[in-house]
UniProtKB/TrEMBL annotation:
Keywords: Hydrolase
Domain Metallo-beta-lactamase: residue ranges: 62-242
UniProt xrefs under Pfam families: Lactamase_B_2
InterPro entries: Metallo-B-lactamas (IPR001279), RibonucZ/Hydroxyglut_hydro (IPR036866)
Organism phylogeny: Bacteria, Thermotogati, Synergistota, Synergistia, Synergistales
Keyword Ribonucleoprotein carried by entry: no
Region listing for Disordered, in residue ranges: 1-24
Protein name, UniProt field: Metal-dependent hydrolase, beta-lactamase superfamily III
A molecular function (GO) term: hydrolase activity
Amino acid sequence: MTPPEELAQRVSSWPKPEERPVVEPPGEITFLGTAGTRFVMVTQRRASGGMWIRLPEGDFSIDPGPGALVQACRLGLMKDRRLEGVLLTHRHLDHSSDLNALTEAMVTGNRKPCGLVALPVDAVTGPEPILFSYLRSKLARIHLWADGPLEIGSITVSTVLLRHHGVECRGLRFSSPYFADWGILSDTCYFPELAEFYRGCHTLIADVTLMEKVRWIQHLSVPDLPELMALSHVSRLVMTHMGNGILDAGPENLAQALSTPQCLVCAACDGMTLRLPEPTNLPIEK
């Protein structure tokens, strides 16, 4: 069988939208990769595929770094053809290299524009846009974070502008009636307004890259976490996007040492699946 015929056969066998399984609320997050820094990425000491969210509205890839499509296929996440969107916090390679691959996977086999890509302005403008122009016409929707919150069915995704080496980088907060608020804190140095934005979230997934604070590197470090936890009042903080120093020290041991009676700290690992928090788990304090 020739490759084109084989591809056509595969496409014809993909589930149609009405045949795709329904994900019960509140949904779940799978970590396709937990690598932080280019050094961990290029050695693949940890995979670097970002996150995959399964919601009743569909599946969404967040920050698809190198290997995101491969990891999603390996874990069986692509077989149901539920990918409805790609959400990008910023344009750096370890967060975006598979953006076009995942977008292609999302639109392939559809006769009319479909799917969503949400991303910063500098990912689609300027001298080096990272979303291929030929894919833009195949998308039903392109959302720029600068235009305001993103609405996906019953879900609202609001953002905060982070501070990360000269690019537009966004932290995300997800709100919906069927899960407690939760957030993703992408690459940034620490500043007090972060805690205010995430206050009242049940779960915060944070890119914690550095073992020790380095003044000229705009990444979160382990010493930043106690203040962030105390001021944001999150119930669960999940560390991901970890650098070599954290991996050498043992992320699980660090998480245990950082945990408090008010906030459980966890260290994500490649392939780990985390159930989204039920609405009844939401702390009272906002």
